[in-house]
Structure formats: structure tokens, C-alpha cells
Amino acid sequence: MHGMTPMQNHNQTTSHKITVPLIKNAFIEEDETKRALADFIVHAKKLSMGEQCRAFEEAFAKKQSCKEAILFNSGGSANLAMFQALKNMGELKDGDTVGFSALTWSTNSMPIIQMGLKPVAIDCDADTLNVMSHNLEERHKQVKLKAFFATNVIGFAGDLQAIREFCRKNDILFLEDNCESLGTKLPEGKTGNFGLGASFSFYVAHHMSTIEGGMVCTDDEAFAEMLRIVRANGWDRNLHPHQQTKWRTTPAGIESEFYSKFLFHDLGFNLRPTEITGFLGLYQLQFLDRNIKMREQTFLRCEAIMQNNADLVPVRRDHLAMVSSFVIPVIAKTSELRDRYLQKFHNAGVEVRPMIAGNIQKQPFHKKYVVETYPLPNTDFLHTSSFYCGNCPDYTEEEIQTIMSCLSKN
Ligand SMILES: Cc1ncc(COP(=O)(O)O)c(C=O)c1O
Questions:
Q1: What are the CA-CA distances from residue 150 to residues 11, 79, 87, 98, 345 (Å)?
Q2: Which fold has domain 6-26+289-407?
Q3: Residue minimizing CA distance to atom 8 of ligand 1
Q4: Is residue 177 in contact with ligand 1, taking CB distance under 6 Å?
Q5: Is the CB of 402 under 6 A from ligand 1?
Q6: pLDDT, tens digit, for every residue of 183-240?
Q7: What residue segments make up the domains of the chain, in order of their start?
Q8: What is 30-285's CATH number?
Q9: 281 CB less than 6 Å from ligand 1?
Q10: In terms of DSSP bridges, do strands 68-72 and 214-218 run parallel, antiparallel, or are they unpaired?
């Protein structure tokens, strides 16, 4: 059509057959897992949150090398719970400024707004996709931050050790959203272990799936305790007995054993998982390393091609010890080139998405609720010059070859 850019053309031709989908299966070992799940459901005595959830929490905490893991019904719920818990604890108060990665997902900045806090968008570096310590320092010079919520973007991360140090020195509460980067490592340790707490998502297509599900990991016992209270409408029923005793003997505590059954200590929601989540988590955990390895192999093959393509910018990762690839990022040098590659992927039937939610300040909900906006040149660049395709662990060699051919220069 006259005057149509490749991007407009791309929008017009959405009926192409998908040959390489973003998501292939809900689980690794899909058939085996579904059969095991069916058997579990038939024989389980209880399906609401119980032993399976607790066992998955313990196994996941061990795997992540943290003290406490608290299971939620989604990664978004995990984020919301972290902020409610910090408000309940008095660590954050109405109107406090919370910095967050501008290149992120809705559920990273929404809870900041929902909790009556003030979101302050922080630019990333275009070549790492992540907020680096110097981006944080610059923003902190303009706006004194009370907290910083970093998103570890699609398997990559910022210089989290330097960020942690900066936050410690400046009394900034540091949280991580590790929903997209389970398994990524820096020389100083695993992503998700740098802040006071970190969220994880087990939604389908993440490094492991429980269909829907999320986790918060922390080494802080008081934070973990409050997260368990927040998760279950504010009551203490799911705490350890010694913690329950403490809550029940506070001045605001119980009048009698009878009333202790329905005692609500602080603000919360119902964000509980079910035993199905717990069962699936335990089952899929046995395949997690394999899942990460397969994604890494595909990512490294694709990265090698991007390194030889002058149209594209490979993601810089020299500060990382290991990338637990989530999807395959494509960063073009210009938006025109991005549109050309989008068309190429589209023609080959490879399903693509924008670089997560792009510059979150451009999202309708942000425009509606957040008055103060900040300049974000690098996030803006990524908004218009990048996209991603999937990196399923179960892609066939043919599917991987299709992606690789789209990444090569014509
Ligand atoms: C960075 C990030 N945070 C949070 C979430 C929310 O996770 P969930 O879909 O489990 O609510 C996602 C979802 O993919 C995400 O990418």
C-alpha cells in the first residue's frame, strides 16, 4: 500500500501462519507432568494450600540458596505482597518515593501506585537492557529515593553488586523482580539474592511453570513472616507456631483460643496458591536445570549470529557470570531496521513481542495515575528499536534454525 512503512505493513499482515510460537508447552515433560498431576488430584486429601506448598517452598529456597521462600498464586501477587508487607512493617510510608526499572512489566510499577507510593522511573542502559548503578545514582541525585525495585530483564541483570552497595550506603531499600531471570548469576551470586527480597513467576513460559504461580525469596525472617500474613488476608494461621504465639500474645492479640481462629493482625489479600501449585512446583523443579541449559544453548547460538550482524546490537553481559535466557532479544540499531527485522520474523512465522512493556511511562495506566514523568532516552530507544521472540526449551532444530536465519543479515 502507498506510503506504508514496513511496520505498518507488519500490522496489516497479522494473518501469517505461526511456525515458531512463543510458548510451546505448559511444562517440561508435558505428558508425564499432566499424568502425575491427574494422579495427584485424584488421591490428594486436601487441595487448598498445605503440605505440597510448604515442601515446594523449602525445595525452592534450597535451590535458590536463600533462607525463606513464600509461595503465591502469581508473580504479580508476589510483587504486591512485598510492598504491602513493607508498609505493614513501617519500612515504607504513604508517598515514599520508589525507583523502579522503566523497562519492565506492568506488575512491577502497579503495586507501587496501588500502595500509595510514588513511582520514579529509572532509565536502563540500552546495551544491557537493565538499570545499572550509574542510572540509579543519577536519578537519586534528582529525587531522593526511599526504595528501588529492580527488574532483572529477560534473563539479564544490572550490576547488582554495585546497586546493592549504593542502596546500602544511601539507606535505600532494595528489592528485585526476578520473574524473568531465575538461574542468572553474577560473580557475586544469583540474581534474586541481592535485595531484601525478590519475586519469581511460574507462569507458563517462564523457566519453570506451575501454570500460574509466584514466589518471594528473602533471608529476612521478619519480612517472610509478614509476607505470610499478607498472603492470607492478614491472619497468622500459616506462620510457624513460635511466630503465632508471638502475634497472639501482643497487646492487640487474642482474647481466647476460640477467637484466635479468626484473628486478623494486619492488612493483606488472598494471594494463596493451591496444592496444585505446590505439586507442580515440586515436580517441575526437577527439570529446571535442564530447562535453563537448553535455553542457554539456543541463546548462545543466536547471540553468535547477532555478533556478526552489523544491523543488530547484542546484549552486553560481561558483568554476568551466566545468563539464564528467558527469550531471544533483538535490538536493532535504528527503529527502521527494527521494523525490517520484525517483518522478516513475521514472514517466517516466528511469533514476536515488544521488549516487555517497553517504556512503562507510555502505558495507559501509568499516564492515568502517575503525574511525574522522567526522561528515559535509552528505554525510549529500546521501545522503538527492539523486540523479542521466544526461547522455548523444546524448540526443534528446525525451529531454532528458522530463528537463526531471521537474525542473520541478508
Ligand atoms: C518482570 C515481571 N514481573 C512480574 C511478572 C508477573 O508474573 P505473573 O504473570 O506470574 O503474575 C512478569 C510476568 O511475566 C514479569 O515479566
A1: 32, 11, 18, 10, 30
A2: Aspartate Aminotransferase, domain 1 (3.90.1150)
A3: 75
A4: yes
A5: no
A6: 999 999 999 999 999 999 999 999 999 999 999 999 999 999 999 999 999 999 999 9
A7: 6-26+289-407, 30-285
A8: 3.40.640.10
A9: no
A10: antiparallel
